[in-house]
Amino acid sequence: MHRRIMAPGALAAASLMLAIPAxxxxxxxxxPGIGDPYYPAYxxxxxxxSHYDLRLKYQxxxxxxEGTATLLAKTTQDLSRFNLDFLLDVSEVRVNxxxxxxxxxxxxxxxxTPNKALAKGTSVTxxxxxxxxxxxxxxYGFNAWLRTSDGGVAAGEPxxxxxxxxxxxxxxxxxxxxxxxxxxxxTQFISNGTLQSTSSRAGWTRYNWRSNKxxxxxxxxxxAGRFDVTTGTSESGxxxxxxxxxxxxxxxxxxxxxxxxxxxxxxxxxxxxxxYPYNALGGYVPNTNTGYALETQTxxxxxxxxxxxxxxxxxxxxxxAHQWWGDLVSVKKWKDIWINEGFARxxxxxxxxxxxxxxxxxxxxxxxxxxAADDAFWSVEPGDPGPENQFxxxxxxxxxxxxxxxxxxxxxxxxxxxxxxxxxxxxxGNASVADFVRYAEEVSGKPLAALFDTWLFQxxxxxxxxxxxxxxxxxxxxxxQPKSWKKIAATNEVHxx
Length: 497
Fold this sequence. Notes:
alpha+beta, Neutral Protease, domain 2, 4-stranded mixed sheet, disordered N terminus
């Protein structure tokens, strides 16, 4: 055995080494996915973003987007490297002021290695400079950027951010936003929240929008084009900004007749779901050829096709209901999509009742009776539909049917207490289907696992005894199509991509 004798200088150096936190030994890269079973590569591990500041310039003629994104975040582990989800071309990255190295990997990953490793709990400022043409970028064989004749639009679920800003792209990481975009004079820019200011210089106009409440990345929206913009205030005092493409043609009137009722509908929904949770309202209709609508926070995106057969307030009800169910309370994982879609659909049933076009019970009876037991509709489990069926009609209609079964089981008092209490309990956060089942049992004082299992998790049509127990389709032979059904069915593809 040999004993090593250290000189004083070496001993001091060793002491310094011992002073380095033990956590330094555990430095590792952040995971390239946040842990969602449906989309393993979406989102990232190792940090949590609190704010996005996006300062961009967009040229509609060429679809070129350039600018700087500043992310404020905090590390949740000791990090040697971390990822952002992004597709455009990056020229520089800085972390806490120092240049960082970066590379791309996978379908949509931007890997960033800071100049100095980041200890857990560190506040981090990440600056990314970039440019590119979003309409030329693909991931997983598709492009979610919507190119229009007069600009471009980002409004997609479950992904859409990659095409215009680097992010931690999963609903678990919500943040506030400042979105500042410069466009040529004559072009408008629409985004979420409140319009803080506009300024013009040398042929360009800059629009500055702010979302001051936590917002999931897929709910952030970018819309540059030529719009007619209307402004107003809801009866409850919320400012309303709506925007309509100048190229909507004969659908313009129907779109306006529907979306201009946004303030009224939001006030009506607040009677069921509690106070409207944001300081801005509105909607916008760019001239896209898509078939879906999306609950982009405070200002839903609508497709012209939503109004092809005339005005349709039902689709407006659906997207505004999401401001509580999906936006205020977001999914923990994408398998919890019923929390969003089943409730937004049920809001349409309540609107039908409000408009005197069929009660929620009558619609539930019709949904149950109109689909045979061997219909593939019943093979989809709304409580965990799988990524291939995330926006299947069963998640909407069977999902709403489950809510009518719940209402009949626990009574109106408990049911409507749940509709109002749930958004308050999980406000600005995330929750799962399992969380909802527990909450419903807590409020109602009843065991409900079997009911939810029957209506949400069995790949088959609930049998007659279950239907009778839930007071569904008591007279299937005489069930008739409710007057509102065509308008409700016209929104069946609102999220179909």
